[in-house]
Design goal:
This protein has about 45 residues and is mainly alpha-helical. The protein has 3 helices and no strands. It is about 75% helix and about 0% strand. It has one domain. The radius of gyration is 12 Å and the shape is elongated. This is DUF1127 domain-containing protein.
Length: about 45
């Protein structure tokens, strides 16, 4: 169970990083996210 949860969290993290990475700086700014915060936001999404 723990392995499956870890794998799903990793997939969610990677998907979030990919989707946010594809956004323009303006789109990120509209969401209140700086490009340097993408990895933090993705980590927070898995919690």
């Amino acid at each position: 169970m723990n392995i499956a949860r870890s794998f799903n969290n990793w997939r969610k993290y990677r998907q979030t990083v990919t989707e946010l990475g594809r956004m323009s700086n303006r789109e990120l700014h509209d969401l209140g996210i700086d490009r340097s915060d993408i990895h933090r936001v993705a980590r927070d999404a898995t919690r």
